[in-house]
Amino acid sequence: MWKSRIEDNGKGITPEEMKTLFEPKFVAEDGRIRTRWGLATSRQILLQHQGQLDLKSTPGKGTSVKVLLPVRELRETGEEK
């Protein structure tokens, strides 16, 4: 598996926000409908390629996102095995 990890020490994500994080549309605190097309689309692409996403966050401490994608071997001709 190929791995990539991104971390920050920002405000973090609350458990309530985590429940809707990958939904393309959600209702914000101000009552308005907001969109997160980028997160929803990215997650869907990752899952379609048999990848995994590990997201951990602690409010007030930050967030860690780890992306795992399967690695396919190529023959010397450049074709997949």
3D architecture notes:
The protein has 81 residues and is α+β, with helices and mostly antiparallel strands. Helices cover 22% and strands 33% of the residues. The chain contains 2 helices and 5 strands; from the N terminus they run βαββαββ. Strands 1-5-4 form a 3-stranded antiparallel sheet, covered by helices on one side. A two-stranded antiparallel sheet has the order 2-3. β4 (52-58) and β5 form a beta hairpin. The longest helix has 12 residues, at 37-48. The protein is elongated. The protein starts with a strand and ends in a 12-residue tail after the last strand. 0% of the residues are buried. The model has no long low-confidence stretch (mean pLDDT 87).
Number of strands: 5
- The secondary structure category is alpha+beta
Outline the biggest β-sheet: 3 strands, antiparallel
Instruction: Give average pLDDT, whole number.
Output: 87
The quaternary state of the protein chains shown equals single chain
SSE order: EHEEHEE
Number of helices: 2
Summarize the amount of helix as a percent range.
10-25%
Straight-line N-to-C gap: 16 Å
Write out the strand line-up for the largest beta sheet, numbering strands in chain order: 1-5-4
Radius of gyration: 16 Å
Which strand-content bin applies to the residues? 25-35%
Shape: elongated
Low-confidence stretches: none
